[in-house]
Amino acid sequence: MFTPGPTPLPDSVREILERPALHHRTAEFQTVLARTTAGLMRIFQTRQPVMTVTGSGTAAMEAVLVNLARPGETVAVLNAGKFGERWHAIARAYGLKVVEHTKAWGTAFTAGDVAAFLEEDGREASILFMTHSETSTGTLHELERITGVARERGKLVAADVVTSLGVHPVEFDRWGLAAAVCGSQKGLMLPPGLGFVVMSGVGWERAQGGGLPRFYLDLVRMRNSLNKNSTPFTPSVPLVLALEESIRLLEDEGLSAVHARHARHAAACRAAVGALGLDLFSERPSNGLTAIRVPEGKDGQEVVTRLREEHGMRVAGGQEPMKGRLFRLGHMGHYRDDDIRDLVAALETTLVDLGWARAGGARDAAERALAGEAESASQSTTT
Amino acid sequence: MFTPGPTPLPDSVREILERPALHHRTAEFQTVLARTTAGLMRIFQTRQPVMTVTGSGTAAMEAVLVNLARPGETVAVLNAGKFGERWHAIARAYGLKVVEHTKAWGTAFTAGDVAAFLEEDGREASILFMTHSETSTGTLHELERITGVARERGKLVAADVVTSLGVHPVEFDRWGLAAAVCGSQKGLMLPPGLGFVVMSGVGWERAQGGGLPRFYLDLVRMRNSLNKNSTPFTPSVPLVLALEESIRLLEDEGLSAVHARHARHAAACRAAVGALGLDLFSERPSNGLTAIRVPEGKDGQEVVTRLREEHGMRVAGGQEPMKGRLFRLGHMGHYRDDDIRDLVAALETTLVDLGWARAGGARDAAERALAGEAESASQSTTT
């Protein structure tokens, strides 16, 4: 499986999932929850508690929005893909006024873009909602710099780091984020079913002082329970137990090494794409996935189908409105160099068979990138 | 584990949980989702689609409320325990006016109570929210009859069947319910992490015509996706795969046989309690759990602790405000007669050791009930 989430499960994570049921109101579970919370705080690089929500990443996004935003207020959204769009849709569902800065799918927002937007259309908004790694286009937006210019203009920044956490550095406190959300089935190497939310002190003040109507997604209630190492509602126990293991795996490897591994794997995929004469879809690619532009007149779904049928490999096509026009290789989470070698080899065979590329070069290019040559060093520190 | 949820996991369910990751946008997953939806429809006894929500039972309750209710309207709630209270709390979180019929914990609502309430305080409400099996007190409210009197008075009935589905018959269509919700970790023998929602045609009209602000819990969006055998957001894949197996287990045994087994197990526990000279907490006990009143001057937590430490059995204490004043034996889900025999034997030993009961009689009483004597036959058809 090489999809940008769900991602493969390490064996030790799978073993935990099949354990007999454990009750959530026990000292044993409370100890695990305390450990996973502390581990998530290290991964988000924050001193704020990280809330674990039973739900998808979208539930975590909605939790942030309904706890941070005030009824009727104007919020700003950066939208250059499906997940930027989602912030907009959630805000509209709650009757908020949305001012949006849109760019074409595949392009990246720059700090300059955002500064100009916040001084014009975004002037009245107090919160900026954005995506760090846009999974629909494979683009990494420069979250750290954008947060800087937004803060200079008095804005809070809430970021979707669903496909960047555990892939690229995310330094919640140092960057001055107001909120960030993630899901379990990406860099954290778990099945889907959990969302994670962290908020700054200012974020908590807003949540405590009001917010929009909510019950299940009330972060204040979650935090009060978490102070007693508990959850307000029955959590998805097996996933929380497995989370302890996936955090252990990440920390045993070392977060910097995990980021560097993702950078090497991404560099290998990008190098292979270049050697095959194809173009990346994104102007600023994420290390979590590689989106490849489909040549004019071809259908990207063919690559997806062939890789599945002939190589047993699952990659992702494009999402609306890019269906058929791009395909996406996921390499976030639990991958080894050999997995990437297999992927590149299968991709080369497939694209040559389809007549989209000529044989030769892709594997060597990938190998050089895996060895740490090419662009990997510089990409590993991109945020 | 003898807690009223989470309940023990069958081995075949656990095996599925540890399978390698499966992507949710695949024909394979879509086929499973179509099957689990059809299976849930048979279990809820409805022709309406049953929505699967990644979240707890509370998320499913909130989904019903925000899709059914209209901004600012008055809703009616029956509250004689923690989960009746929860309907009230969710409604208040969305600014609804709540008229409530409360009764003491441990008592049961009757159709007569509810008729009188709906003709007085509940007059203006168009929806009645209630609990079928109240887990905090072990009480089964007469949902079928109450729904009948509410419908005669023009009210929609939304019921929490979290600890009754798969335990007692729930006949969604025939009883004329407007909505019902369940969770995965009870009679459905799964880990927590999924909620289930079903709505009647009238319920869907209300949801489509408005409802309260929501995004993740928007049932209309879920239904549109379900029409394509899909979900709007990433579902908790392993739990859905395991659900297919737990439905198979229930249907292989036969729903009536499953209900009868729960009735026998409940009758055995109640007979043992009587033989031990203790009182049931509830005046109309659910077959999903047995709540036992703690004798005056004693602390129910002692029973919970002794059963855990000396017998390795986990039962539940009382929830606020009944902490210490009752304890609860869960017997919903995957239990065999021998499990109940072990539970009764351990309970007798523990209560004799504590000086709350005299030895002798409990096991025989339980055995007679397991053999189908005593009250089991009549209880098996109580709804």
Describe the protein in words.
The structure is a homodimer of 383-residue chains. Chain A is of the alpha/beta class and 383 residues long. Chain A folds into 2 domains: 11-252, Type I PLP-dependent aspartate aminotransferase-like (Major domain) (Aspartate Aminotransferase, domain 2), CATH 3.40.640; 255-379, Aspartate Aminotransferase, domain 1, CATH 3.90.1150. Helix content of chain A is 44%, strand content 14%. Chain A is built from 15 helices and 12 strands. In chain A, strands 1-9-8-7-4-2-3 form a 7-stranded mixed beta sheet, sandwiched between helices. In chain A, helix 3 crosses helix 4 (82-93), helix 12 (301-311) packs across helix 13 (337-353) and helix 13 runs antiparallel to helix 14 (362-370). The radius of gyration of chain A is 21 Å and the shape is globular. At the A-B interface, helix 1, helix 3, helix 4 and helix 10 of A face helix 1, helix 3, helix 4 and helix 10 of B.
